[in-house]
Write a structure and sequence with these properties.
This protein is mainly alpha-helical. The protein has a single domain, classed as Orthogonal Bundle (Ribosomal Protein S7). It contains six helices and two strands, in the order αααββααα. Strand 1 and strand 2 form a beta hairpin.
């Protein structure tokens, strides 16, 4: 029998919005333990989003996260010498992690002055159902749809 899973440590909510989701996002955004810089980047990006759209930047960020969140993904499984891409449901915790990582990754790939600019542009694009992070979700869903014939291998 396997060992017991370690307990999840509860994250402290962020100071401005009092939201644990923001803390998780900032932890993914952070490099080399520079959390205050990561918070600055995030808050600047949210301000820029609010300025660009004229709406609440925090709400648009939440909408962007929701738009980028995948519901299915494909996992490789080796069966009888062949590798199959098997579509599986994504765990709720992993859904959020994937959406955050995609938003941050494709923000970094964008061209712009600062990381806050790039992140703001990606958030606005994702909230409208555009941008590279949203495209990644669509591609993931398309892959799962194409391989649904192998779902019985799950």
């Amino acid at each position: 029998m396997r060992k017991t899973k370690p307990k999840k440590i509860a994250l402290a909510p962020d100071p401005k919005f009092n939201d644990v989701l923001v803390s998780r996002f900032v932890n993914n955004l952070m490099w080399q333990g520079k959390k205050s810089i990561a918070y600055t980047i995030f808050y600047d990006a949210v301000e820029k989003v609010a300025k660009q759209t004229g709406e609440n930047g925090y709400e648009i960020w939440k909408r962007a996260i929701a738009n980028v969140t995948p519901s299915v993904e494909v996992r490789s499984r080796r069966i009888g010498g062949a590798t199959f891409q098997i579509p599986t449901e994504v765990r709720p915790d992993r859904k959020i992690s994937l959406s955050m990582k995609w938003l941050i990754r494709y923000s970094r790939d964008r061209n712009g002055r600062s990381m806050a600019d790039k992140l703001a542009n990606e958030i606005v694009a994702a909230s409208k159902g555009e941008g590279a992070a949203f495209k990644k979700k669509e591609d993931t869903h398309r892959m799962a749809e194409a391989n649904k014939a192998f779902a019985h291998f799950r």
